[in-house]
């Protein structure tokens, strides 16, 4: 899976209309039909503006984590890359997004698609964790 960087201007700070506080996934409530609030996506999705960036998903190695081609990832570089987190990494000059799995003697980058094999990170790899995925913005 490859990622393309999205310019930070993607989220502009402009407030957009939020229809109600929640959307029913079960039986709808007619009383909530006309309630609206305002929300700023950069305030809702970005905790640390200076260390957050965006990338567009390309490929299908993470489809079982609900990351589809064209989705935009919100990635925070200030978060600690710990076991079980989904991270954007640079491996031997290429970006990838995978789940971090820490073993006692090595690090693995694990895809969420059974057609792909985990990547074992060794001292021979040029490796860097760019950041941790905090949100997926879905393209529908």
From TrEMBL:
Any matching Pfam family: Peptidase_S24
Matches recorded under InterPro entries: LexA-like, LexA/Signal_pep-like_sf, LexA_repressor, Peptidase_S24_LexA, Peptidase_S24_S26A/B/C
Keywords (A to Z) from UniProt: Autocatalytic cleavage, DNA damage, DNA repair, Hydrolase, Nucleotidyltransferase, SOS response, Transferase
EC primary class: transferase
Span of domain Peptidase S24/S26A/S26B/S26C: 18-133
SUPFAM superfamilies in the cross-refs: LexA/Signal peptidase
EC number: 2.7.7.7
Chain segments annotated as coiled-coil in the UniProt record: none
GO molecular-function terms, A-Z: DNA-directed DNA polymerase activity
Highest taxon listed in the record's lineage: Bacteria
Entry keyword Hydrolase: yes
Alphabetical list of CDD domains matching this protein: S24_LexA-like
Similarity-based family: Belongs to the peptidase S24 family.
NCBIfam families: PRK10276.1
UniProt-recorded name of the protein: Translesion error-prone DNA polymerase V autoproteolytic subunit
Source organism of the structure: Faecalibacter bovis
């Amino acid at each position: 899976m490859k990622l393309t960087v999205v310019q930070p201007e993607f989220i502009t700070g402009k407030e957009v209309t939020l229809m109600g506080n929640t959307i029913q996934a079960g039986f709808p409530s007619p009383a909530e039909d006309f309630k609206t609030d305002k929300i700023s996506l950069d305030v809702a999705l970005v905790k640390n503006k200076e260390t957050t960036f965006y990338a567009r998903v390309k490929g299908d190695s993470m489809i079982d984590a609900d990351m589809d081609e064209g989705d935009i990832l919100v990635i925070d570089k200030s978060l600690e890359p710990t076991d079980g987190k989904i991270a954007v990494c640079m491996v031997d000059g290429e970006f990838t997004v995978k789940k971090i799995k820490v073993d006692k003697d090595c690090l693995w980058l694990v895809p969420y698609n059974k057609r792909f094999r985990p990547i074992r990170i060794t001292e021979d790899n040029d490796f860097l964790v760019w950041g941790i995925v905090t949100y997926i913005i879905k393209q529908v």
